[in-house]
Write a structure and sequence with these properties.
alpha/beta; 7-stranded mixed sheet; Aspartate Aminotransferase, domain 2; Aspartate Aminotransferase, domain 1; binds pyridoxal-5'-phosphate; 13 strands; 12 helices
Length: about 350
């Protein structure tokens, strides 16, 4: 095909992000919340369909700034945090450093933009390998470091000490991706905004019931926000999403309740999985659990035959599957299906 020859070199070997829709009865593969909030959609009745959305999302930023106690000028909205990753790498360029295994978009977007990636394996506990990270920072001088904490797909938070050491060592921007912060027992890194100029924090509504909106937040110093804003497309968050997202901040108690249910269920599923023979289950501070099981890909297929879709993580972590926490009923169906396969 002729088109192939027209591609930029770095795009030739790139593969599209595999977000296949696989039909199933119980969907536990994408770290979505099992709880939706259809009533919040009434917020869109106020919008003017003929007008462009607020280019800066002022009302939504105001609501977020109150909740997180940060200045409006410390906030930038994205069409999901994925878009913010894109903007960060567009703004600052590479090398882009991140530990592995982690969220795949850091590498995919860096490569799409033709930037060098530096991958440093996590240690045996899936925590940051500080010596290797610092060595990589010295050798490659990354412009951007992405730390997902809690980390997807391993579920743990990185130790604060080690993140602080990395902040101290790096001359580039350290992005803490707190997509799963709502489910974590430790406080996030927002309080560090005051002390570190080169820290940027990402939050998203996607894992707490609003994946369909595509709303993410970058929280950082005014200098970083001003820089990233230069590459932002003018109307990147649409009016419907802005207005429903505002409603989220007005009704946060509802979200908190659903998060609490999910955390309780996570701890129950963790115990149940841990009691099964031949499974290695990793503790989680997120809304999913990673576990090791023999013949993981075959177990994945057998679960799907029973209508349960989890994520096959074997390409990133040997013998590993990742299950998203669903409703209590969905979790029971998953646990029963898994038991019938392994015992
Ligand atoms: C799901 C996920 C995201 C993507 O968030 P969106 O706001 O939906 O784009 C970002 N980071 C991590 C670590 C994730 O797991």
């Amino acid at each position: 095909m002729d088109i192939k020859r027209l591609l930029r070199r770095n795009i030739r070997t790139l593969k599209a992000y595999a977000a296949k829709e696989i039909p199933c009865r119980v969907k536990l593969d994408a770290n979505e919340s099992p709880y939706g909030f259809p009533a919040f959609v009434s917020a869109v009745e106020k919008i003017q369909t003929n007008r462009y959305p607020d280019p800066e999302g002022k009302a939504l930023k105001k609501a977020a700034s109150k909740r997180w106690r940060v200045g409006i000028k410390n906030l930038l909205l994205g069409n999901g945090s994925d878009e913010l990753i894109y903007y960060l790498i567009t703004t600052f360029g590479g090398p882009v450093l991140y530990p592995t295994p982690t969220f795949s978009m850091y590498g995919i977007i860096a490569r799409a933009l033709g930037e060098k990636t530096v991958e440093v394996p996590l240690d045996r506990e899936f925590d940051l390998d500080l010596d290797k990270m610092i060595e990589a920072i010295r050798n490659y001088r990354p412009k951007l470091i992405f730390l997902s904490s809690p980390n997807n797909p391993t579920g743990n938070c990185f130790s604060t000490d080690r993140m602080l050491k990395i902040l101290d060592t790096s001359k580039g921007i350290v992005v803490i991706d707190e997509a799963y912060q709502a489910f974590a027992s430790k406080r996030g890194m927002l309080p560090l905004l005051r002390d570190f100029e080169r820290i940027a924090i990402m939050r998203t509504l996607s894992k707490i019931g609003f994946a369909s909106l595509r709303v993410g937040f970058l929280i950082a110093s005014e200098d970083i926000i001003e820089a990233v804003d230069r590459v932002r497309l003018p109307f990147n968050v649409n009016a419907l999403s802005q207005s429903i997202a505002e409603e989220v901040f007005r009704n946060y108690a509802d979200i908190d309740r659903s998060v609490q249910i999910i955390c309780r269920e996570r701890d129950r599923v963790f115990k149940e999985l841990s009691s099964l023979p031949l499974l290695k289950v990793f503790p989680s501070e997120a809304n999913f659990i990673l576990f090791r099981i023999k013949n993981a890909s075959s177990v994945h297929r057998k679960l799907l035959q029973k209508g349960v879709l989890v994520r096959d993580m074997t390409s990133l972590v040997r013998d590993a599957l990742r299950v998203t926490i669903g409703t209590p009923e969905e979790n029971d169906i998953f646990l029963e299906a898994l038991k019938s396969i392994v015992v």
